[in-house]
Amino acid sequence: MEHIELDVENIKTSVSEGELDNIQSEVNRIHDELERGLTPGSGYLGWMHQPSRLTGEVIDRIKGEAEGIREDADAFVVIGIGGSYLGAKAAIEFLHHTFSNQLSKEDRGSPEIYFAGLNLSSDYLQDLMDLLEGKSVYLNVISKSGTTTEPAVAFRVLKRYLEERYGAEGARKRIFVTTDKDSGALREMANKEGYSSLEIPANIGGRYSVLTPVGLLPVAVSGTDIVEVIEGARDCESVSSIGDLRSNPAYLYAAIRNLLYLKGLHVEILAVFNPSLRYLAEWWKQLAGESEGKDGRGIYPASVEFTTDLHSMGQWIQDGRRMVFETFLTLKETAKDITIPHVEDDTDGLNYIAGRSLDYVNDKAYVGVRTAHLDGGVPNMTIELKDRSPYSIGQLFYFFEKAIAVSGRLMKINPFDQPGVEHYKRNMFSLLGKPGFSDG
Ligand code: PA5
């Protein structure tokens, strides 16, 4: 795939070519099942052809709304939880300056972007409102169901905050809703209040929704050309529609993680070597964890950020209980380049790498780690992304969506539901005295 390379060299001692040959027929069956919509959760397969089916009309609408917000907003607050915020957060962190919100508006060229409704913390929400004082604020409240407690509570509070600052009419113009076309309390509010609203296709679940207005509006507000993101995803959609796992990296990745799982490696650690990928790992954890962790099965998805975590979790990965495999997510080209200076007295002893870039050293750390971990009994593979471009992240989003769907089916799991998430909600609602939920 143009911007994604999957390196499986360090798996070869654990997974044989014969095992890959043997799993191919099961992959074929799942491929067919997904293409024909015959899988459990078949009502939620809209993500499969979402990139190629996104119409120019929808894209223009998203771009138009984003332009309007960008012209007047100093701060743009995205309200959502789980699949309704992680994709946008991952893309924005990946594509922009590490300290974007701290730059001047002129240097950033877009509003500051904040996220709310992803927790139930007064401290977080009040601190955010303190920070918003004096700024021109716009909100994008995102919820597929329109009834999720965390974003609903944050929206109620932030809506009141906007009304106090701008009056009811002024607030209304600053609120953008992304939700289901027909159902849910948020849709009802959008219709009643006349908020500008974008639709989440009914057949796409939260964690598969980054390539809908859920992810695309915030990304467009951040100043990214969403057409490039979509093009990357479209190209990945096309490559990922090949059944042969040796020609389709998403299927190869899915097959290998399943074969490793069957050998007792029940934890996959996604290790990134660049902080810009931190939230991509968070997004991946949700996608993998919520899709596969059910019926007493599923790979536990964990993540680390190297080299930082080599000084904490590195010890465990090298020498701890042998139940993990690793997937490195690396960047071929970074956006900036710092060269280590030469110093005459060389007191810190670093002259042996003077003249080298930080990324060169980071790369050697990666090569050293992958070999060390393999030696320590942790098979690993690498997904190498070409660069920090919108096209690359579009490819990567689709790559993981397809891979995790196939992987979940290889485990005979419905990757598109999340029944376990409801359990805590019932308890919480009962404790809060929500009508319709008895004590218990
Ligand atoms: O993947 C999922 O379906 C969930 O993680 C949801 O994205 C999350 O619970 C938020 O749901 P909603 O968008 O309905 O508020």
Structure characteristics:
440 residues; alpha/beta; Rossmann fold; 2 domains; 5-stranded mixed sheet; 16 helices; globular; binds 5-phosphoarabinonic acid
Short structural summary:
The chain has helices at 17-35, 50-53, 56-72, 86-95, 105-108, 122-132, 149-173, 185-193, 213-221, 226-239, 249-262, 278-292, 313-319, 358-375, 390-410, 421-432; strands spanning 4-7, 75-79, 112-116, 137-143, 175-180, 196-200, 267-272, 300-305, 324-331, 380-385. The protein has 440 residues and is α/β, with parallel strands linked by helices.
Give a written overview of the molecule.
The chain folds into two domains: 5-38 and 230-410, Rossmann fold; 47-224, Glucose-6-phosphate isomerase like protein, domain 1 (Rossmann fold, 3-Layer(aba) Sandwich). The chain has 440 residues and is an alpha/beta fold. The longest helix is centred in the middle third of the chain and has 25 residues, at 149-173. The model has no long low-confidence stretch (mean pLDDT 97). Strands 1-10-9-7-8 form a five-stranded mixed beta sheet, with helices on both faces. It has a five-stranded parallel beta sheet with strand order 3-2-4-5-6, with helices on both faces. The chain is globular, with a radius of gyration of 23 Å. Strand 7 (267-272), helix 12 (278-292) and strand 8 (300-305) form a beta-alpha-beta unit. The protein has helices at residues 17-35, 50-53, 56-72, 86-95, 105-108, 122-132, 149-173, 185-193, 213-221, 226-239, 249-262, 278-292, 313-319, 358-375, 390-410, 421-432, and strands at residues 4-7, 75-79, 112-116, 137-143, 175-180, 196-200, 267-272, 300-305, 324-331, 380-385. Helix 1 crosses helix 11 (249-262), helix 4 (86-95) runs parallel beside helix 9 (213-221) and helix 10 (226-239) packs parallel to helix 15 (390-410). The termini are far apart. The structure holds 5-phosphoarabinonic acid. 5-phosphoarabinonic acid binds next to loops.
